[in-house]
Every structure is written in C-alpha cells, then in structure tokens.
Design brief:
Distance between the termini: 14 Å
Strand content: under 5%
Number of strands: 2
Shape: globular
Largest sheet: 2 strands, antiparallel
Mean pLDDT: 80
Order of helices and strands: HEHHEHH
Structural class: mainly alpha
Length: about 120
Amino acid sequence: MHFLGHVVRFVVAAIVLMLVGFIVPQFSVGGFWSALFLAIVIAALGWIIEGIFGKRVTPFGRGIVGFIASAVVIWVAQFIVGGVSVTWLGAILAALVIGIIDLFIPVSTPFEAGRNEHRGGDYR
C-alpha cells in the first residue's frame, strides 16, 4: 500500500471513530485530529500485539479473542491520545460497533497489507 493509501485509510478510520463516538455512550473523541491520532495509535498497538502474539490475538482478528483484544486496545489508547475518554463499557461497545462497521467496510491490517505487498498483491 502506498503512502496515499495509508493516509486515506487513517482518515476513513478517524471518521469511523468520530461516528462511533457519536453513537456509543461512554466513548468520546474530542475532534477530528484526536480521532486521527487515535486511529494511528490503535493501528500501531494492534500491529505490535499481532507481531508478538500472532494473528489469532489481534484487534483485527475475528472471534471473541479479537473482540476482547480490540476493546483492550481501545481502552489503553485513551491514555496515549488526548481528548479521548473511554470507559470499559464504552470500549466494549465501541469494539462491537467497529466490528459491525468492519463487516461492511473491510480494511486489511497494516501487518497484513505489508505482507501482501511483498507477495505481489492483495489476496482478500
């Protein structure tokens, strides 16, 4: 994925996080820049977790373990990004809403996208 593709992906993720902040109680994002930085932090934390534990224990994975990892990453990210406030319940609900949105607008993980580029294509 080229630089512009990453920029577009993070802008879309920021818009989704702002939408989630509007829908989900106990999850608030201060504005677009906070949402954009939150999207970058969530992607970085997910990439680190995926690198350490493998594909099954990532926020981008499917199933209950991926869902729990996603909620934990969202909750931890609030301590890194200013203007973001999340409770445990808010993180769980946000992970659920983001998972539902991901069903309709699937986005590959940064780790997976990098691997597919080295193979010569995106194999979704």
